[in-house]
Amino acid sequence: MKAKIRRRYLALKIDSEGKISQKELMDAIWDAVLRLYGEYGASKTSLALIEYDVEKNLAIIRVAHAEIENIRAAIATITEVAAKPAAVHILTVSGTIKKLRKKLELSMAFKP
Amino acid sequence: MKRRFADLHLQPNLSDVEQTRHMLAKATKLGYRLVALPLPTASVEAFAKKLRLICQEYRLDFASRLDLKPQTPRELLRQLRKFRRLVEVIAVVCKTKEVARQAAKDHRVDLLNFPATDSRRRFFDKAEAELASSSVAALEIDVKPLLMLKGPTRIRLLAALRKEVAIAKDYHVPIVISSGATNTLQMRKPLEMAALTTLFDLDKPTALDAVSKTPLTIFERNREKLNPNFVAPGIRIIRRGSDCP
């Protein structure tokens, strides 16, 4: 029997001076992954955008469970998005979208 | 127990109070509990006092730090004699091999820092590691160059770091991962800093220690030493003068 693919959902916060579109964000993430791990490495990440809130600068992406540390490193290397200085931080990680949303609400509620 | 994270190398423009405040607020938001900022040698105490107050507002512990950039070993010794008792963390930016060797064997040096862009000036080899392991100096790796450099320069830096980290592990030299950030967009969460170290093959437990346990140990050791009641490790004055029965 085929093993179930394990995935992780990541909530991202984009720090930038201007507004950033969904495409620009994903281009920046793909670019960072490709720079660090090449096309072979990128093909193993199963990276996909699930949701993006332009107003709040929040995004949810999905990645392969085994590649989580590589994706974390790649996302940390992002210094600009669409030629605008930016930084992308991982707010929380979860195995299901439902739990991710719950965690995200909690982390927002207790934000200092 | 929950880890406490530290960034021992935040580099805001200290004359710009607003920017300094922004960076300290960001550090709290990202989950740090201890930060160190390099102070100008001309007015160490004044800046330290001011920054300590600002850090309290943001619920951060502040460690005063000096970055020494001597040209010769003799100059390094002179600077260490002058400043060691004033600050909690002393880092030496090693520009020559002689300075690197002297810094590695001196017990007063906490951090060894090497220029990121010039791989020929990274003197952290086996001899350096052996000297550092017999003293207390740790190897400091700044994350900023990893973020800012692109292409072959970053590749060369990663290769050099991979070699240095392997040597440091062989000789049990502690490693400290710092941001080296000059603005808020260059600051990263502790877990992101730890993840970046996978690029030069540092294992996760060591990476996490490099952003928490190791810098905190350096800070606590030196804070104890700077206490006026400190005599030697484990010995301190508890009563003096008329307090003594």
Model description:
The complex is a heterodimer of chains A (112) and B (245). With 112 residues, chain A is an alpha+beta fold. In chain A, strands 2-3-1-5-4 form a 5-stranded antiparallel sheet. In chain A, helix 1 crosses helix 2. The N and C termini of chain A lie far apart (47 Å). Chain B has 245 residues and is an alpha/beta fold. Chain B has a single domain, classed as Metal-dependent hydrolases (TIM Barrel). A 7-stranded parallel sheet of chain B has the order 1-2-3-4-5-6-7, with helices on both faces. In chain B, helix 4 packs parallel to helix 5 and helix 8 packs across helix 9. Chain B starts with a strand and ends in a 9-residue tail after the last strand. At the A-B interface, helix 2 and strand 5 of A face helix 1, helix 6 and helix 8 of B.
Number of strands of chain B: 9
DSSP helix count of chain B? 10
Overall number of strands of chain A:
5
| CATH-scheme architecture of chain B | Alpha-Beta Barrel
Order of helices and strands of chain A: EHEEHEEH
The oligomeric state of the chains shown is heterodimer
- N→C terminal distance of chain A: 47 Å
